[in-house]
Amino acid sequence: MARRGQPAQDPDDLSVHELIDGPTEILSQDTLDTIRGPEASGHDLSLEQTHDLSASAAEATQDLAGGGAAGTNVRRRVELPRMPAAGALYRRALLGALPGPGGGRRSAGVPAVELAVGGIAVDRTHLADYDRVCGFRLTDRLPATFPHVMGFPLALRLMTAPEFPIPLTGVVHVGNRITVYRPVTADETLDFRAYAENLRPHDRGRQVDVVLVGSVDGEEVWRGVSTYLGREGERGGGGRRDQPGRPTTPAGSARWRVEPRVGTDYARVSGDHNPIHTSRLGARLFGFPRPIAHGMWSKARCLAALENRLPDAYTVEVAFKLPVPLPSTVSFGLLPEGGFALHDSRGRPHLAGLVR
What we know:
By secondary structure, the chain is an alpha+beta fold. It has nine helices and eleven strands. The protein has helices at residues 29-36, 55-60, 86-96, 124-134, 146-159, 261-270, 275-278, 280-285, 295-305; strands at 76-79, 113-121, 171-180, 189-202, 205-216, 219-231, 252-258, 314-320, 328-335, 339-343, 349-355. It has an eleven-stranded mixed β-sheet, sandwiched between helices. It is globular, with a radius of gyration of 19 Å. 42% of the residues are buried.
């Protein structure tokens, strides 16, 4: 999310470094290290179930701060009876952004807690719908990005806790790393756990990693790490860094027209109903003249284009750069040694990634 109250800017006028500083060429190992810094599927999105967690879950998660100083490795495990409802969590985040008591930073460290929920089955209809929206083939094998969708409400529950160091309405998703340890199929049931780590300073605020882990019968089969930037104004004197020359734009191997319905379609299959992606009014409230595509849709669409090239086990990491306004036309290009990128019509990057 972008911070509310900033002046609206046309995404076509945003610089490459407007959302996140750093190189935009192929992600080398050094670059990766820099980026890292140090519905039956379990999604219950019905209106009847979006009020809050059950009483037992609410009681179990009321104290998320206990000892959550940056750098601590001790986390209290909290088992939830079911996957949280994303709708209620977004409403909580939006209400928390309104002026009044309770706003602003609530913690100097990450919550010393690990949220967990077990027995999340794959809804094959949901999987097929997701595959269509993102461009994957219709198969029983889960795309690398699908467990992220399955477990996203658990991570969202963690990020909307009062003790989370960055308000959800002030974060920008700047990077995502997924590791697939082996193929996962639709007939398997997953257990998820989520926790936050590696809170660190950034020139534009603070960054934090939210880790989501998927396991089958006690075996870790999937891991996702999402890096979020909480923008807190300029640091280091407030000036913009001298920017290096723009890297060579890879030749586009495909051009995609990204229609406005991508925002609402992906929200429906992912449970991520952030209005910045689905509503012109919602986008304007957060500084954009029109909705922008979900970053995880962009990553999924790139992986769909690479589907025939992916091994059974791999890591794919991306850095999100310029937002993809809806509608727009983007170019997908391959880079050496497993790299790929998504660019706009002027050659500026929306996303830079690497498969290894």
